[in-house]
Amino acid sequence: MGKMTEKALKEAFAGESQAYMKYMIFSEVAEKEGLENIARLFKGIAYAEKVHAANHARQLKMIGNTSDNLQDAMDGEDFEVHDMYPAYHAIAHIEKDKGAQQSIHYALEAEKIHSRMYKGAQQVSKKGKDIALGELYICPVCGFTHEGKPPAKCPVCGVSSERFKKF
What pTM was estimated for this model as a whole? Predict the structure, then answer.
């Protein structure tokens, strides 16, 4: 693949990925406002954007076997934990943006957990086995991730675990 084509596909992948997430969030807003058909429109077009992103990812050879994908996921989470979010937090602190500081803190704490979970999954998958995963709970405010019965309150943001989403 030519360098310009690769750059273009990487930018297209990023754009399609962002569009997917944005439209899914827009769908949630429309649902809360009782606009079910608009929510469905956002979800449908979000799916199309996901298809585009997946096609680009395949062309860029970004998708491997599960062990490779877990390694890629760990590398991404570790970059966020050790490099990206600390730098972004410092910028938000310098600019005294409390909202950004909180958002970055929430993400950083969740990413630490995600990295550990991916590492454990990769160790098991390298033996050709699936992990034993209990119920997974995610805090809807900060993204705190917990396997098994969650604590009464989120240890990162304090929201009641009754609001957690179960996977």
Answer: 0.84
